[in-house]
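Progress against Task 2.4 (sequence-to-structure conversion) is shown through the following example record, which the project officer requested during the mid-term review.
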Amino acid sequence: MPSSPISEGDGMNQKPEFYAHFHPDEHTFVDQAIGWASRAENKHEIKHTDFLDPRQQFILTSISNRFPSLQIVFAGGYPDAERKRAWIAPDYLYVNPEETSIEVLHIASGDTKMRELEHGDYLGAILGLGIKREKIGDIHVHEDFCQVLIASEIIQYIDIQLHQVHRVQVSTEIVSASQLQPVPVQLQEMNITVASMRLDGIASDVFRMSRTKILVPIKAGRCRVNWKAEENPSHHLQSGDVVSLKGFGRFTVLSVDGITKKGNFRVKIGKYS
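Structure tokens generated for the chain above:
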């Protein structure tokens, strides 16, 4: 992307130039990011966003860097957060993301069935209250409770309205950030041997599906590589890539450990549990 700065008007006029760097599905967010950066620079405002995934954080940073005299700060409620809110502001203004905006909802139950609940159960229950995904940060599922990072402007509503998660009656409490207990990322390591580093070949091995069946969700737009939509089954993966397939799960390519005598790749995979 060119490094020359742009103004508010230029930013809107150069949308096609920005679009060339991003997937068509991302153009709506690109428009938003240009607007946020433009207003922050030209109207001397602090723009405060909802939670963004890592790909959106990358897009916003890339666009904000094109505007002179802007700063951008991210915070997700704890140091290793994946989903974060952003503050975009002129560089002469003080920004402290710790002051407001993110709180912790503690969800518990006396029902032992709570131990069977998963990330998607909690997210689904909260979204079922009419809450947008962008208002929800990371979700930490423990054996007997769950803690969710939530935008402060809507946490009171969820605290009052959330009574059930997948048929399990629950109670909720808003707790301080110091009481947050993040769950460390746990990866199930797998060693596979593949003919190439193609997305479809590796994904079919990881999710134990035939190559023919794995093509369906990929071509349907349900796959993301490093949080970017990827519909090309022949896309080549490399060490460090994170792949998610909606409805199936997520994995990361931990390393490529060499080539066999037959020319196949030995690949170490970390599958998110």
